[in-house]
Specification:
The chain is mostly beta strands. The chain is built from 2 helices and 47 strands. Strands 31-32-33-34-35-36-37 form a 7-stranded antiparallel beta sheet. The protein has a 6-stranded mixed beta sheet with strand order 3-2-1-47-46-45, with no helix packed on it.
Length: 505
């Protein structure tokens, strides 16, 4: 019996196999690439920043994160301090004796666990700017042990031993901590490194940052100026030194009289005024002085170029002045020519943008360029030097302009936002970056989405909020007409005192 033909498996065609595998790999890679692009796009619109903010509820203070989650329940009588909004180190004061001024402190983390318990006190190092706005050193905190003070970082690492009688900030200056011990003062940076040795009886700032140097008082009771490296700039021989300087000239006081001097002590000007207020940017223009309560301009030769007739006078840029007379502000030049008429209750100069913001009696603003022409008018809502724009409310519309006065749409100003305020038929809604309506036009007013993804909505005189997808997080129930700024995190809105930077419900 013969056998039938044996069935044989075909031999593998390796070239085809490799081709199939390669094609499969390409497909898989393509899928992952597409997924990556979509994920990246999704990440671009996702609000990823997470900060910690102080909250206030039922007259008690707590902490929440920028997603609206309560971290520390509002249970503290005193406001909680957050030195760095990115770090979960929260400093609490409790058991305050208002008669003696004594109090206790504790530090908590985001798990409501007490940390840094080895210290008797743990406190933020507070500071304030020229407008009295309070802020804190964000890389160092002050601790107390065995009755002495030291500095640690926010991770708890010791930067200096607890050996000082006191530690405080140099007013208005970042990264400069004044330490005191046995009647002497010195300066440390926020890493604990010595900047000025402990050899002075008094130290204050000369300018806005440590690059300008420090006014110091020696053991002889006289004042001088030293730089950041503790090298003498002005010899310590004066009764007083004012925070007025420029063109290598300084204002000092001797025998009860202000004198303009050079670095080497040579007198430049010593008469013709009651007080020197400002040294002008151009040395030839001299100083702004006060005589009999009025402001004027005088050259260093003593020649008066602008009579003392103004209630205020401040140099905006070289040879250009903001002048107040009869309770109204104008802009004049060194030749006394009026560049902008005295029609305003205030004028400020933005050096970076090279423009002027002039405020009228009805609190609307004119935006004036470097040629003194009014380029835009409206109510100033916001100004951002870093992003380079101003926001104005013009009629019922909110408009953005760069510093060249070119109008920009909100997506250009806030490219990471997912929603953008839009107006139609007198009502506000929100659209996505493609212009598709996400939130219907139903609100009387609204704010743009903030950095945390929330926007304010107003209806029937009340304010509420939505999230970055347009979902309502707080129905419009808050009366915020007296608030300077409308801002929300979830159902919490920014407090009335915006300098304190807290949220409440």
């Amino acid at each position: 019996m013969s056998k039938g033909k044996r069935y044989e498996e075909p031999k593998l065609n390796l070239k085809k196999v490799f081709a199939v595998i390669l094609a499969f790999i390409v497909v898989i890679m393509f899928i992952f690439i597409i997924k990556g692009i979509l994920t990246k796009d999704k990440e671009q619109v996702k609000i990823t920043s997470k900060d910690y903010v102080v909250i206030f509820q039922n007259n008690k203070w707590g902490v929440m994160d920028s997603n609206g989650n309560q971290v520390i329940d509002p249970s503290y009588q005193e406001m909680i301090t957050i030195p760095n909004k990115k770090e979960d180190v929260f400093l609490c004061i409790y058991d305050v004796n208002y008669q003696t001024g004594e109090y206790k402190t504790k530090a908590l983390n985001s798990k409501n666990e007490e940390i840094l318990t080895q210290y008797e006190q743990v406190e933020a190092i507070s500071n304030q700017d020229a407008n009295q706005n309070v802020w804190y050193e964000d890389k160092a905190i002050k601790v107390k042990k065995d009755g002495k003070y030291g500095i640690i970082n926010l991770e708890g690492k010791e930067l200096t031993p607890c050996q000082y009688d006191n530690i405080s900030a140099i007013e208005g200056m970042k990264n400069a901590l004044k330490v005191a011990k046995d009647g002497k003062e010195g300066i440390l940076n926020n890493e604990g490194k010595e900047i000025l040795p402990m050899q002075y009886t008094e130290i204050t700032s000369l300018g806005k940052d440590n690059k300008e140097g420090f006014i110091v008082k020696g053991e002889n009771g006289k004042y001088g100026i030293v730089n950041y490296s503790n090298e003498p700039v002005i010899e310590a021989k004066y009764d007083e030194i004012s925070k007025v300087y420029g063109n290598d000239m300084y204002v000092v006081k001797q025998a009860g009289k202000q004198v303009l001097v050079k670095k080497d002590g040579t007198e430049v000007l010593n008469k013709g005024y009651d007080e020197i207020k400002e040294i002008l940017k151009n040395a030839e223009n001299g100083i702004i002085f006060v005589k009999n309560g009025k402001y004027g301009v005088m050259k260093t030769s003593g020649e008066v170029t602008i009579d003392a007739q103004y209630e205020e006078l401040k140099e905006a840029k070289s040879g250009i002045f903001l002048a107040k007379q009869n309770e109204k502000y104008s802009i004049i030049d060194i030749e006394k020519a009026t560049k902008v008429e005295p029609n305003y209750i205030s004028i400020t100069y933005n050096e970076k943008a090279d423009l002027y913001i002039a405020e009228k009696e009805d609190y609307s603003n004119d935006v004036i360029d470097a040629t003194f022409a009014i380029r835009q008018s409206g109510i100033l809502v916001d100004s951002d030097d870093e992003k380079g724009y101003i926001e104005l409310k013009q009629g019922e519309e909110y408009k953005y302009y760069n510093f060249k006065f070119e109008e920009k749409n909100v997506a250009e100003i806030h490219p990471s936002n997912t929603l953008f305020k839009s107006k139609k038929d007198g009502k506000y809604g929100f659209v996505d970056k493609d212009g598709k309506v996400v939130v219907d036009y139903q609100y009387d007013d609204a704010t743009e989405q903030n950095s945390y993804g929330y926007a304010g909505i107003k209806k029937d005189g009340k304010w509420g909020s939505i999230d970055n997808k347009g979902n309502i997080t707080q129905e419009p129930t808050y009366d915020l007409e007296d608030y300077l700024k409308i801002d929300f995190i979830g159902r919490w809105h920014l407090g009335k005192d915006i300098n304190m930077n807290y949220y409440r419900d």
